[in-house]
Amino acid sequence: MEFFEVLRSRHSARKFGNKEVEDEKLLKILEAANSAPSAGDLQAYEIVVVKDAERKKKLVSAAFEQEFIAKAPVVLIFLTNADRSSKRYGKRGAELYCIQDATIATAYAQLAATALGLASVWVGAFDEKEVAQIINARQNTKPVSMLLVGYADEQPQLTPRRKLEELIHNERF
User: Fold this and answer.
1) What is the pLDDT of residues 24-70, one digit of tens each?
2) For a surface tag, which of 30, 49, 108, 157 has the fewest beta carbons within 10 Å of its beta carbon?
3) C-alpha closest to that of 149 among 28, 46, 4
4) On the CB side of 57, how many CA atoms lie within 13 Å of its CA?
5) What is the spatial distance between Cα 150 and Cα 153, in angstroms, rounded to a whole number?
6) CATH number (domain holding residue 75)
């Protein structure tokens, strides 16, 4: 799929079919996340892949009862790795750059899923301590995003976007 078509095609889907995501596609998604730019090229993030039904049910609870999490074939959880970033960038690395790294990787994974004909939705509303416990997160990592991936069982409605004139300030193009 051409890049701008990927951008036009990406919409949040919260209803997934029962079809599993093929390992080859999941690997391509993870490779895309791995290719994301990061501060100092440190890749100060980790990714946990969750497919287990019991763990997904626990994630529903940790994410304030967002039931659709349990129905997604794959949940990718992106965590910061503050230690990797702080070694070079100190406090700013630990408090900002590692978060940016993890979220950029999430965005790359989401676009890759779209390019592969899969649906996804980004989940950011959750209790990070509870999620960390469910996935046995390593010390000094913090969950910042979940990306649910699967085959859509719905046609998500398009949502309106802001006009560029509302987003762009000072300079005109």
Assistant:
1) 999 999 999 999 999 999 999 999 999 999 999 999 999 999 999 99
2) 157
3) 28
4) 3
5) 9
6) 3.40.109.10
